[in-house]
Amino acid sequence: MALRTILTAPDPRLKKKAAAVAAVDAEVRQLMDDMLETMYAAPGIGLAAPQIGELKRVVVLDIDREDVKTGPLCMANPEIVEVSDEDVTYEEGCLSVPEHYSDVARPARVTVRYLDRDGETKELACEGLLATCVQHEIDHLDGILFIDHISSLKRNMILRKLLKARKEKEREEAEGKPAPKLKMTAKEEAAEA
Prior knowledge:
By secondary structure, the chain is an alpha+beta fold.
């Protein structure tokens, strides 16, 4: 497994449509493993292959919480085959749009068909956070970010902030300044003491 770099908006590669995988082979399984490792390290609950520069229809998810136990889900060629008439709104964020969140309305329940890690066709009925996550990640496969579902005014404001942050980071790297130190967790602080 390997940690991969997560692309951030407004990287044009995030707006491209991903191609279906012919089969779930060793290469696709390796991609799924790399994506899971990258997602957990970020940390996040979902990641689509285009977010790491791979234009393949592959997503990984893990929304495990105290009340929901899904474990990691690996999906190749996921497609939504059924949606509810009822919508639900969740505050969404994205590893490719760091530190920005917005309410997005999506169908409350969906059924997704996909190839699992073993290449077997599966169908999964999803609701709540899992339904939102599945739809969010499938959007990535079609070059759609969650900010494409919000007002253009708010979207443009977020994109300007991300572009400014990227330019600032590039300028600091060019000047040889060290990257800002990430805040340590309490556990890390205790270990260092």
